[in-house]
Structure of Major facilitator transporter:
Amino acid sequence: MTARAAGFRDVLSVTEFRALFSAQLVSVTGDQLARVALSILVYDRTNSPGWAALTYALTFLPDLIGGPLLSGLADRYPPRTVMVLADVLRALAVAVMAAPGLPLPAVAALLVGVQLFNPVWNSARAALLPQVLPGETFVPGMGLLMMLVQAGQVAGFALGGLLVAGLGTGGALMADAASFAVSALFLVAGVQPRPARETSGIRWWRHVRAGWTVVAGDRRRLALVALGCVSGVYIAGEAVAAPYAAELGGGAVVVGLLLGAFALGNVLGMAVLSRIPPARRARLLGPLAVLACAALLGCALEPDLVATLALFTLSGVASSYNLIANTTFVQLTPDAQRAQAFGFALTALRVSQGLGVVLAGLVAERVAPHGVVAGAGAIGVVAAFGAARLWRRAQPDPR
């Protein structure tokens, strides 16, 4: 008999998961809101698009430090405590940033501090979730949270513009500070305290190295990270959305449609995957990674807008394989190093996506956008085949 896959209703019936879900919703929305408000704040003060773009970039860079060096805090200390403290510190820092006339270097320093705690919060959640949702409820729970991140980003960008227009940048930043405070309240009220998983008392640096060894020393976890990093290739469609829209004869609305097509496909794909029985789901990991890139090969034919949106949506649906990779990675990682190892994996993902965006933008200076996306799809197919082969070879011998 085929095992029944747990569904969204099963996970939403868990009180602690609902608290985590609510905390993630307000936190992600507030984070995106702050990005919009800060970009506008810096542009208003400097009248420089370059400084505004640099400020936006600063919201991503601290992940490269916080992921490897700070994520292990959730292994060494109670994860709920780590998440609440991260929320409180971010709320205070953003509230200070909202002060009128604060010098821009101080704003930048506080921004870096706020973003340093993002991978800490996410790694603590990754360490906590298997305890809140054991067994087969873990996969649909992670799927809901990943879909929530997509929806929260869209909502945060939309609300950011509206709140800045209505309240000014200071008011929007205070709303962001309030979102972190509300997240902390959800966690305190709805999530049970649990002890730290790492109790050996080893020093911080040795724990960091141990987390790296957990990732690099296991071929299965390394293959899963490689599969995740394939997203740094097919992200080219998002990276050149603006010039691609212009090539298709559209403006801002078409840019939104292109970005939304991928996000919509991703949400639909994760919703379907969460309902597929576990044994079949595991076999889809490699084929979906290849399809996420292969779908973009159709852009070489210079399709019209409707066909392009269909290709982007298909790529988004297939990219939901990251749900399988993400949940499998967490489940394969020992409890005592889960947050630290997840931090390393998250950093690798951020680096691959950042490089993918930069390279796609540089190539688009000389190559038509449809060619950039199709070329990225071709490279991605090769990379996905390679990562999928690593995953197959890493599986234990059934004999």
Q: What stands out?
A: Residues 62 and 293 are 28 Å apart (CA to CA). The chain has 20 helices and no strands. The radius of gyration is 21 Å.
